[in-house]
Amino acid sequence: MDYNLRIVQTYSITIHTAARTLTLYRNGQRIKSYPIAVGKPSTPTPKGTFKIVNKAVNPGGPFGARWLGLSKPHIGIHGTNNPLSIGKAVSNGCIRMYNKDVIELYHLVPIGTTVKIISI
């Protein structure tokens, strides 16, 4: 009989658009919060619960160092080639992070991770 137990780490993400923060949880415990940029008023970040459905390294264009695509089409968590935009409402609905932060997040969370986006 094999008594080696594998501990499964379950990650989730909560994005507070009003506070412009992304908070990472592991097994329900807060691990870290990151500053973000969100959608501008004409293209707001959608509210709701989504899943990470794909990931990419160096996706090109304005998406910075990493891309984590959400189950909401055309919306993702990504890096930025404009770090001065972090903390502002300037995107086309996506969640922007500093490249160093999105790289860290990319390595921690798997495809299937739940992402809850709220405004309060």
TrEMBL record:
Keywords assigned by UniProt, alphabetized: Cell shape, Cell wall biogenesis/degradation, Glycosyltransferase, Hydrolase, Peptidoglycan synthesis, Transferase
InterPro entries: LD-transpeptidase, LD_TPept_cat_dom, Transpep_catalytic_dom
UniProt family annotation: Belongs to the YkuD family.
EC number of the protein: 2.-.-.-
Active site, renumbered: 78 (proton donor/acceptor), 94 (nucleophile)
CDD domains, alphabetized: YkuD_like
L,D-TPase catalytic domain boundaries: 11-118
Protein name: Putative L,D-transpeptidase YkuD
Pathway it works in: Cell wall biogenesis; peptidoglycan biosynthesis
GO cellular component terms, semicolon-separated: extracellular region
Alphabetized PANTHER family for the sequence: L,D-TRANSPEPTIDASE, L,D-TRANSPEPTIDASE ERFK_SRFK-RELATED
GO biological process assignments: cell wall organization; peptidoglycan-protein cross-linking; regulation of cell shape
Enzyme class: transferase
Lineage of origin: Bacteria, Bacillati, Bacillota, Clostridia, Peptostreptococcales
Molecular-function annotations in GO: glycosyltransferase activity; peptidoglycan L,D-transpeptidase activity
